[in-house]
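URGENT: need a sanity check before tomorrow's submission.

F., can you look over the DUF8055 domain-containing protein record below? I want to be sure the sequence and structure line up before it goes out.
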Amino acid sequence: MTERSRYWERIKPLADRARRDCEHFERPEEPPDEQQALEYLREGVGPAISIYVEGRTGGQRVPFTDVELSLLEQSMNNWLSLYAQCYGKELDAAFSIREAAEVLLDTRNVADTARVLTHIPERGVRDPQPSGKE
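Structure tokens as predicted:
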């Protein structure tokens, strides 16, 4: 790859961390491990989506390379799968980085973004959805 965006130096370490996190992941003995799940969101999913959003909305649109987009998306999905496993759920996450960015812009919160995308934790477990009755 000869051309890289100015975000390469942020994307590559994120992708390396996602790989290491997957390699060293130990499923919690008694799910949920909400603390670990939130760490994957704050330290992984959030930064991955933020890079994409910044590159698409920060004044000049950044021409991410196919490799960069793939690494961002794959890393985000790996962390979302680990997030799910922290809740004792199996998830082969396959969300687009654009879809996740749109949800993040709507929710303004990475934990809410993960819940919207993965449906984990399930309704009523910890954060019941509003019933619409006010």
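My own read: Confidence is low (pLDDT under 50) at residues 124-134. The chain is about 60% helix and 0% strand. If you see anything odd, call me.
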